[in-house]
């Protein structure tokens, strides 16, 4: 579904974050980018929705060069979840989840219906949807972050360390939830983590990154069998 072709990223200060990256993210399932801090995972992920522009190379989604699409339009079509949910503190949960549908120009009623559906999908109640983010636990806030990414019904969702800031018991629940959502909705998830156990638990495909490149790529079974 996503294809990287000889993609490099050099930041203005000269840091080579991604070096000659060529690989494919299959449609459906969860593809995990895993590796130590600084190996280029976040840069790779953010190039998919053009939050970061590659220095050279091509990225295509379903065969279409993403550089040919307006960045803002591309970004709205792809769900994005980060470590700290990044919710607007002065807006209710429901208003937060309505953000992307509203940006897409949906009318209020349609945006509201989609947001409530997404809120319920991630296991939160309508009552919780009326609260402000600070009135929810960290794990619940992450659920809101996931709901916000799903509300407009994207086919592709990018997740950057989505569970790293929540405690381990909640983390297991959230992992389960993302797995279930991926299956139920048939979406494609690309997830970044530094945690190899999480990668092997969640990934249908695991890309082990090192120094801006992919050191190993395969299913968890293949990776565990590798020497
Ligand atoms: P990871 O997600 O694996 O921790 P990153 O993609 O965040 O890796 O970073 C890869 C490398 O690029 C690191 O050396 C990091 O310090 C550097 N880097 C990331 N963002 C920037 C930036 N905006 N400007 C300069 N260097 C950056
Ligand atoms: P994340 O947790 O999303 O990986 P970071 O804390 O690594 O975010 O980085 C926060 C912001 O700083 C990002 O926009 C990233 O691109 C930028 N950044 C990361 N590393 C560097 C760096 N070495 N120099 C400049 N900016 C950086």
UniProtKB/TrEMBL annotation:
Signal peptide: none annotated. It comes from the Bacteria. Keywords: ATP-binding, Nucleotide-binding, Transport. Residues 2-227 form the ABC transporter domain. InterPro entries: AAA+_ATPase (IPR003593), ABC_transporter-like_ATP-bd (IPR003439), ABC_transporter-like_CS (IPR017871), P-loop_NTPase (IPR027417). It is an enzyme of class 7 (translocase). Pfam families: ABC_tran. GO terms for molecular function: ABC-type quaternary ammonium compound transporting activity; ATP binding; ATP hydrolysis activity. Its EC number is 7.6.2.9. Belongs to the ABC transporter superfamily. PANTHER family: OSMOPROTECTANT IMPORT ATP-BINDING PROTEIN OSMV. This is ABC-type quaternary amine transporter. It comes from Ornithinimicrobium tianjinense.
